Each structure stands twice: as C-alpha cells, then as structure tokens.
C-alpha cells in the first residue's frame, strides 16, 4: 500500500485478530492437564474441552457470512473482540466443566468470526503485489499467539511462579485470564480502522469506496482503475447463495475453498498444538514442566518457519509452498508415528524422546511454511466479489468443522487404532493432498482479485484461474 500509516494500521489490527486465534489454540494445550487434575474429567470430556471451541467457531463462521455482509469486515472484527473477552473471562471463572463448555463455545464463536473476517479484510485492502505477504503476516500473528500461549502455560505450570506473584490460584485459570489483554487491544485498534472499499461499494456507498482506495493505493490513477474493476464485478446480478445456485463456476470456487480448508486441518498439525503435552508424555517426558518446555519449542519453530512463508507467498507462490509443505508433513508424521511406536514398545533408547520433539518441529515447519498461511490466502482470493462472503463462510465453516473432528477424536483414535497408526493415517492424508494440489489448486501470486474472478467465471480450469 502506498499510504504507510494506513498500511500498518490495517495489517496490525487484522493481525491482532490472528494473535487471539493463536492464543486460544495454544492456551488449551497447557491448561488441559491442570483442568484434568482439578476436575478429574474423562478422556471424552477432555476432547470436549478442546473441541467445544471449534464447535463455537463453526457456528461463528456460518453466522459471519451474514454478519460480514451486513455489518462489514471492520464491525465483524469488533464483535469478535468483544465476544472473545466475554468467553475468556467466563472460562477463567468457570466453576465446573459444563460452564466451561458454554464459555468455550462463546470463545470459539468469536474466533470463527475473526478467522473469517481478518483474512478477507486483508485481501480486500491489500495491493496485489503484497496481498500474499499481508495475509501471511496474519498467520504469523497466529503462530506468535500460539508461542506466547505456550510460554505462558510453561510459566504458570511452574509452581514457583505463584510464589513469586504471591498468588494461590489454580494454574489454568491464570492461563485463560491473560487472554483478556489482547482482546481489549483488538477492540480499541479496530475502532480506528478504515472500512473495506469493496464492502462499501457492494452497499452502494461508492463515494466512500473511491475515497478509501485513493488513500491506500499508489495515486489516484491506480485507485480509480481498481475502483472500475470493482464496479464491473458488481454487475453480476445474483449474490451469495442465489449466485451459488445459479452459477456452476461459483460453485467450483466454493467447493475448492472447502477442500483447501479440509486439507489444512487433516494434515494433523493442530493435534500437535492441542495435545502437545500428551504427545510428549507418550514420547517419554514424565513431568508437566518437561512436556511444557518441549511444547514451547514447537511454538518457536512455528513462528520462525512462518517468516519463510511470508517471504515465499509473493515470490515462490502459493502452489509450490503447498507441495513442499505436504511432503514435509507427510514424512514427518510417518517418522513421528514410528518413533512413538518404539518408545511405547520399550525398545527405544532415551534419545528417541528428543527425536520425537525434533520431528514434531519439522512437521510444524512444513505446516507453517505452507498450508497454515497459504490456504487462508487462497480462500480469500478465489471467490468472486458478489459471492465472497458466502464462499469464505463455507470454507471457514469447513475449517472449523474439520478442526472440531480432530479435537474430538484424537485421544479416542490413540486408544482405538493405536498411537503409531493414528500418525500414519495423517501421513497418508498429506501424501494424498499433494495430488489434489497438483490437479486443482491455482497459482494466484501477483494477480488481481478481479482477474482471478474473470478467469473463474469464464470457465477456466480451477488450476488455471490465476493465469
């Protein structure tokens, strides 16, 4: 963007939404062992503590198709920030597991809104030359949130922390309570953000749309050319579900978005986030502190590798990153399953425990440089303007529904088909996703949203709509 101040504000505000997303993913990983100790909950109740957030996020993503269209991307993020604060406070004060479920759903609802609205807002506000990096920066903040949560969890898992702070409180309650701070930051930051010019134009507020474009682009000529492209996109008669029913080309982009989000989740990487301490317990780390320090290394690898993704998004492109990432994750999940198999059989030397941490980090690096940011980038790019809210609502809902399935089944799979077999299953998914990427995923780097839409609506093959 030409206007440096506007550029930084837009990126910062949307990235705070990513920070909340990451903090919530990371916090439950460290909090869960302490919740289990305090309430003595079953395996299935543990799965529901994790997955009720995804249930709420699924509902939030569905609802935000309407919310984002009616209120705009900016106000959607504001609603998400307020609800996250309510859900977080409720979790920190929950007297029992059932109250925890309710506020985890509220927390999840807000994350569903943020995960929908933030990448969409960034894609609509960013110039084509930096669009991939802007959305990858959002993903960077997700990873920083996860790392911050892991570090916070580690600190609060050490009893000395409470003596130093003069506190006598259950560890996991403080883990949740610290999330109030970024929630408040998001609310105040969003208030100063400009509205999306594409959303304004879709509501007939054309003067405002042109004004904002001129503020965020390289001069009036570039802004006016983009404005004319937006007006042409709005000439499509149908919108939303009506367009989905009437136009087979739009249906293709909707289904591609849903497949991309399914692929992102069934890489299995989020189980490394939600259940990292459990996985490292299986690997041979017996104390909660050892498990939490190992988990923090996972978060650190996630952050560092996301910097690679930011560099790749607008240089290498989306498709090469996905192919490399799925290969790395497939090999990594196979190797992790093999290591855990030997550890559980009692035939493994002590250093296999550390190898398990290292291989988990390799898996996360593969994810961070590929599916984690690139799927959100692609899903925000491939939908036509008149169907963008509906299309991204469908793909984001798929993301959270798939995420919920992962969270609600992982421990049961370990007990059912076995530890090694569970990780090998996810390895097989990753190898399948390489084929899907080659056959259907387009390369969209450096292409305007309106050009992608034109290629899609002209009936080009999905893998060619970025040409």
UniProtKB/TrEMBL annotation:
Gene3D superfamilies: MFS general substrate transporter like domains
PROSITE patterns: MFS, SUGAR_TRANSPORT_1, SUGAR_TRANSPORT_2
GO MF entries: transmembrane transporter activity
Domain of life: Bacteria
Keyword terms of this UniProt record: Cell membrane, Membrane, Sugar transport, Transmembrane, Transmembrane helix, Transport
InterPro entries according to UniProt: MFS_dom, MFS_sugar_transport-like, MFS_trans_sf, Myo-inositol_Transporter, Sugar/inositol_transpt, Sugar_transporter_CS
Main localization of the protein described in the UniProt heading: membrane
Entry keyword annotation includes RNA-binding: no
Cellular location(s): Cell membrane
Bilayer topology term: Multi-pass membrane protein
Family: Belongs to the major facilitator superfamily. Sugar transporter (TC 2.A.1.1) family.
Record-given protein name: Major facilitator superfamily (MFS) profile domain-containing protein
Species, as recorded: Shewanella mangrovi
